TrEMBL record:
<dbReference type="Pfam" id="PF13649">
    <property type="entry name" value="Methyltransf_25"/>
</dbReference>
<protein>
    <recommendedName>
        <fullName>Methyltransferase domain-containing protein</fullName>
    </recommendedName>
</protein>
<feature type="domain" description="Methyltransferase">
    <location>
        <begin position="83"/>
        <end position="170"/>
    </location>
</feature>
<dbReference type="InterPro" id="IPR029063">
    <property type="entry name" value="SAM-dependent_MTases_sf"/>
</dbReference>
<dbReference type="InterPro" id="IPR041698">
    <property type="entry name" value="Methyltransf_25"/>
</dbReference>
Length: 304
């Protein structure tokens, strides 16, 4: 059944919301990737952010959770996989995933510490991390090839992240089968080159489209406008499944001496007769300190 939406009277919106709406006009028509002073803006808006957007009928976070639950229907799986909320803000998305979706291991990243303080207070995140998004060259290694669900709400917008954010989504995704869900307005797909980059990633086998949803944004406004906001703006929510694994190639000439020595010591097993080469236990006892560094350096991932 269709959900009944309560339409607000924009003439009765409180002054906090009116002022917050007015301040958002600075992003209109801004060039990507970042408008000036974006972090300062969100640090200042942390107190009024949720009230403003929820008053108008913002529900990207609800739709993203619905798709996540549809594509990951097993509750036991939701409780154990790691989830990355990119541009988590005040935590609306992570809170919905945690309390409604049943996802228990959610990590949030955002450039605004004040917004993340609100997210942390919800106690739905395992960890919140200060991070500028849209800069793949600085995306932390400990967040790469890790998450089985990656979500992103309200970041692919005017004056915020450009199409490089898609590369970071791929970096964060843990191999084949990872679900990536993000929202953006329909016309941004064209205006900011998002669709072109998405198509390129599909053409080269990096990901494939799993689901796409069109829905109204700010539906509590009805036929009214509140500042620059109106119901007729359409939001596109797309879910992508990661296919190919992006691999960082190492320069073997720069491998450290510990790894080189460990590799050399493994040569003793070449051509040995089963079931056991001599002194195998002594070998592994001696290799315990360097074992992981050696194998992970050269791309071992049987465990994954």
């Amino acid at each position: 059944m269709a959900q009944t939406v309560e339409i607000i009277d924009v003439t009765k919106v409180n002054e906090t919301v009116k002022a917050a709406v007015e301040r958002t006009t600075q992003w209109s028509g801004k060039v990507q990737p970042y408008a000036k002073d974006i972090v300062e803006h969100y640090n200042e808006e942390a107190e009024s952010y949720e009230e403003m957007y929820l008053t108008m009928g913002y529900h990207d976070h609800e739709k993203v959770n619905e798709i996540a639950c549809e594509l990951i229907p097993d509750q036991a799986t939701r409780e154990v996989i790691e989830v990355l909320d990119m541009g988590c803000g005040t935590g609306l998305g992570g809170d919905q995933l945690f309390k409604v979706g049943g996802f228990k291991n959610i990590f949030g990243v955002d450039a605004s510490v004040e917004m993340m303080a609100k997210a942390k207070a919800k106690e739905s995140y395992k960890q919140t991390i200060e991070l500028w998004l849209g800069k793949p060259e600085t995306f932390p290694k400990y967040l790469r090839n890790r998450f089985q669900l990656v979500v992103c709400c309200g970041v692919l917008v005017e004056g915020h992240c450009d199409k490089k954010l898609f590369d970071e989504m791929i970096m964060a995704a843990k191999g084949r089968g990872t679900i990536i869900i993000f929202s953006t307005r329909d016309h941004y797909l064209r205006d900011y080159g998002y669709q072109k980059r998405m198509d390129e990633l599909e053409a080269n086998g990096t990901w494939k489209l799993a689901k796409s949803l069109l829905t109204h944004k700010y539906d509590k406004l009805g036929d009214q406008n509140l500042g620059r906001f109106k119901k007729t703006e359409i939001i596109t929510i797309k879910s992508r499944g990661k296919m190919a694994q992006t691999v960082e190639i190492i320069d073997v000439t720069k491998v450290n001496e510990i790894v080189k020595a460990a590799v050399e010591r493994t040569s003793q097993w070449s051509g040995k007769v089963e079931p056991y080469a001599k002194d195998i236990v002594e070998h592994y006892n001696a290799e315990a300190e360097s074992y992981e560094e050696m194998y992970l350096t050269i791309g071992y991932h049987d465990h994954e």
